[in-house]
Amino acid sequence: MDALPRIYVSAVMMFDALPTPLTFDGRPRGVGVELEFGGLTPRAAADSLVSAVGGEVVTESAHAFRVVGTAIGSVTVELDVRHAHPAKYGHELSLRLSERTADLFGRYAGWAIPTELVTAPLTPERLTSIDRIAAELRSLGARGTRDFGWRQFGLHFNPEVPSLAGESIASVLKAFLLLEGALRTSVLGGRNRYLPRMPPPFPPAYVAQVLSPDYWPSLPDLMREHLAQNATRQRSLDLLPLFLFVDEAQVRAALPWEKIRPRPVFHYRLPLSRIDQPGWSIGPDWNRWVAVERLASDRVRLDALCRDFLSGQGEGAEGAAIAAANV
Length: 327
Hints:
The chain is α+β, with helices and mostly antiparallel strands and 327 residues long. Helices cover 41% and strands 15% of the residues. It contains twelve helices and ten strands. The protein has an eight-stranded antiparallel sheet with strand order 4-5-6-7-3-8-10-9. Strands 1-2 form a two-stranded antiparallel sheet. Pfam families: Amidoligase_2 (PF12224).
């Protein structure tokens, strides 16, 4: 395949472009970013966004803020626990706290609960702003996942899907399953790479089913079979927000109380926010996701690698997939 265009951030970091640039309804594809950190209250983090990307802070509750009018659209910053925001999430909770109790809960529990920053969908060339925001937060004392201790903060990408066809979703899932081992190694890395908690991998029987070269289901069939074996959000590639967007009744029948928002996105969950490390960029993690989509878009190579994997050449197939995708 021809080299894909890259979006240059600086002399050392580039953000790759998506191989399929438009959504199913013809818009430029965006990606929402979720970034977790400690060391700053949601209010302090929201104020820092104004310095980094402009805008104005709107208070939603004692521990939830929205920054509007920024250079990258609306950004939400809140304590990452629904019980601290009864007005916003109370209808989803079996126990709803009063506003005063929720305020106190957030004040005393906030040291142990991440602050989460969530952006609206951004086109890839605008992801450079996240690095600028991270640098601003770091200068104020934001802390990320450490190689020791019990606290863990995540980085999640939510790229909008290019199509709602079963074949399109299945191709990305196949590519992800082929590359998941390499992605885990690349994400964790280092001498203490097993300390941060990665979501469990997909069950081997499900992997074998999906990687069959003949497995190209309709979206309803893909959803039904996925939910039968993966009725959990504990996967690095979480398809439940997409499935909820397509058919809420089917997902809620399997997971009536799970915290899921319907969104036409691939929810790619990473356990490491390195926001406290000077020079850290979300670029490498984003580029690894683009590598998955790049492999998914090459049907001939994808089918060949799936056949190799299922014929017992799993390690060789993964190595070939890594070389093909440049993970």
